[in-house]
Amino acid sequence: MGVPAFFRWLSKKYPSIVVHCDERQGECSFDNVYLDMNGIIHPCTHPEYKAPPETEEEMFEAIFEYIERLMRIVRPQKLLYLAVDGVAPRAKMNQQRSRRFRASKESLEKKIEIEKIKEELKEKGIVLGETEKKKHFDSNVITPGTDFMISLSKELRKWIDLKLSENNPDEDEIWPKDLKVILSDASVPGEGEHKIMEYIRKQKANDNYNPNISHLLVGADADLIMLALATHELNFTILREEFIPNQPRPCEICNQYGHEMKDCTGEMRDENEPDFIVTEPGFIFIRISVLREYLARECGSDYDLERFIDDFVFLCFFVGNDFLPHLPSLEIREGAIDRLLNIYKDLMSTQPKNSKQYLTQNGFVNLHQTQIILRRLGEVEDEIFKRRQVDQKRFKERRKRQKFQQNKYSFKVPWMRPEVVVQRGERVQSNITNVKVEADRLRYEVHHQQQNQVAAQQLKAMLKSPSEPSNNVNIGKRKYDEMNENDSEEEQDEIKLGSDGWKSRYYYHKFDTTEYFEMGRRVAKEYVIGLCWVLRYYYQGCPDWQWFYPYHYAPFASDFINIEQIKIEFNSEAKPFRPLEQLMSVFPAASSENLPPSWRRLMSDSKSPIIDFYPQNFKIDLNGKHAAWMGVALLPFIDEQRLFTALNTVYPDLTEDEKIRNSLGSHLLFVSRKKREIVEFVKKLEINKSEASVSVYPYLDGMFGTIRLHANYSKIYKNTVCVQFDDPSFPSGFIFLAKKLKGAIPPKSVLKPLDYDNSKGAWRPTIGLQPSYQQARIDDSGKRMINHSTNREQHSSMPNPHFLNHQYDNSFRPPHHSQNMRFTRPPLPMPRVPGPYNPYKQYQYQQQPRNSQQRNTQQIYQQSFHEDPWHRYNQ
């Protein structure tokens, strides 16, 4: 899911990391391309800004088209890795549970609202057009263990087998014959991005690994940036969709654009009306190599850059991640990351260069140093809350003023008056012949209508209270005060962070306890364990599949006391849930149809021993936020023992197909049969009926791991070589080193060196992803157009003098000209035009020059123009 606002902060602070993608060029290529498939599946199956596909077949086709669109942009040369989210660690399940319960609740509320609006339209006599009732697509099915994900995995296998076959025309040449494809579908445990990171981490640990392989990861989550930094790979890039604000969405009732659901009139779309074109979002590249350059400048030469990067990743965990809530005093929009970095630098600046004690090493946390950071943050916590309180009060006042002004000057525009409403099917005859005249007329009408409204308010006030004269100011003040009262009722802040006693109120309302000191210590301990779990997950893989943070809220920075005494232990023997077990853990009762019949009854039967896990209604605590999606869903945590005890009674009811859905799978490796070496090797395995795992390195240069025949798929997919693939294995307790490998060649520097000698010429950075990338290109037709335009305007390079007069006189000024401008505009070259024309007239609106030098300059200009306005052109 990522960290809200993190990418916005990062791209503003380090702007050169972003490169806009031009899909028409297709000049980029990368060795290894990794697709976080859930970021593709969701927008293709239920897009936000256009009509969704109607059938599963259309959804799958949209997914395949999207993947090929990506491949035309990035052109993988060696490996394409498709990673679908499998069963997640228990720490992630809590977030998944919250999101799926919210989605179900929002879907039900929207359905009720749609029916309510339809009834209101029918009461007004509006006959709604007959619309075909379509089955609602429950996005919760994009979870391991559902029939939908089983079908998607099957279609992905067939599609890869087809694309790598020798019969694939491949007109765009995006499927090289040496390309290897790994499919890690929903049956393989682990989040998609972390399965990708595990592959890179284990490949990198081999001695023969090429440190200059270029990696590209496709995904929109902000935490992918931190995962990419954690690899310490120098040639790493991320591709993500560019966010387009204020994208129009179709109405949920009539499926038309241009209005929201609450404003729908029920009219059906005119057949002659052109289709509404939705802007397809483009893509941007995020250059991790450039981010490393920025971070190198942040730390300077006194730090070990690789260790500083690891500490930077760790500090970012405090402002939010998928497994822990962020600390109350840290908001990215308030500069939280910058504050943490400043505290960190102040601490590290007191230590010698060669004996600095960093916060982390290879994914393990130095709790002593972390305690110092948190203590210093806790010292300014009260100041942070007081400043936030002032800012929030200022924001509310500004919003109330804006709302009051909107209500005060609101009016009904002419085209919304009842007398212009026509029956459906009739055409409104437009008498508008001049748009500018009509705009002036409308502006005049609006102005007088506002005046009439003010006069009407005054008259009403006088009629109500004839003995006391009333004025519009008092009316407005009373309405403004009423608005303040209404807003204060809507937004009640029970905690009041920044006011005296905020900590005791926080623990009383959030944790239902008055022993805030003891509870704070307990919550802080679990939070520290969580920080260690997350960092180890990023650098070493999942340390414990069963651990999770057992609270909805985070502690304060001042609650972290003596954390170096906390014993950090994880159960490395813990196993992931099975797919159907995860569905029972994260699904609401509304999505129970995706479970076996006897299993779903545990969600709805009032006598079920775990019925309390599936509440129909639950509270969403805004927790100081303005939007419900940013709030905290107060759902009960799943008790693992109670869940498994209840499931033991229904496990015998599973059919054979349901047992397959509930089983864990493995990675699949697809290789084209054009690769003769691997084809001959697999034939030998088939002849010998071998089930042994064999190293893939001698047959697929540059890849490490083992392959073996798959019991089912190796026989089914004959267009390609399809085998089971396993990552390289390492002994228990092995530590993956977080470092830059020897022989790694960094890309050409993009940022201008601080000691760059300007006498060598202008600094020319690498603008795109390739050294030869050109920022702008002009083809032959464009050059001809420029030459033609230049020749035509050679003797008339200035606009029409009449336009200049109106552009610079007192009645019209460009926006960048202020009333009090004092500079003297230099004379503009004037074209040869017949008739009397005073070229200096256009400058007469200017004020007097500031000093004698400007005054003399202006006199010279005036004299030269009065003597001979065209003397420069007659020479």
Structural account:
The structure is a single chain. The protein has 875 residues and is an alpha/beta fold. Among the domains are: 6-267 and 276-318, Rossmann fold (3-Layer(aba) Sandwich); 589-659, no CATH class; 803-867, no CATH class. It is 40% helix and 7% strand. The protein contains 25 helices and 15 strands. The protein has an 11-stranded mixed beta sheet, sandwiched between helices. A two-stranded antiparallel ribbon has the order 8-9. A hairpin with a 2-residue loop joins β8 and β9 (364-365). α6 (192-204) crosses α16 (516-540), α10 crosses α11 and α15 packs across α16. The chain is globular, with a radius of gyration of 33 Å. The relative contact order is 0.11. Mean pLDDT is 82; it is low at 411-430, 466-480, 485-490, 801-824, 837-847 and 860-875. This is 5'-3' exoribonuclease. Residues 303-755 form the Xrn1 helical domain. Belongs to the 5'-3' exonuclease family. XRN2/RAT1 subfamily. Residues 865-875 have a biased composition (Basic and acidic residues). One of its GO terms (cellular component) is nucleus.
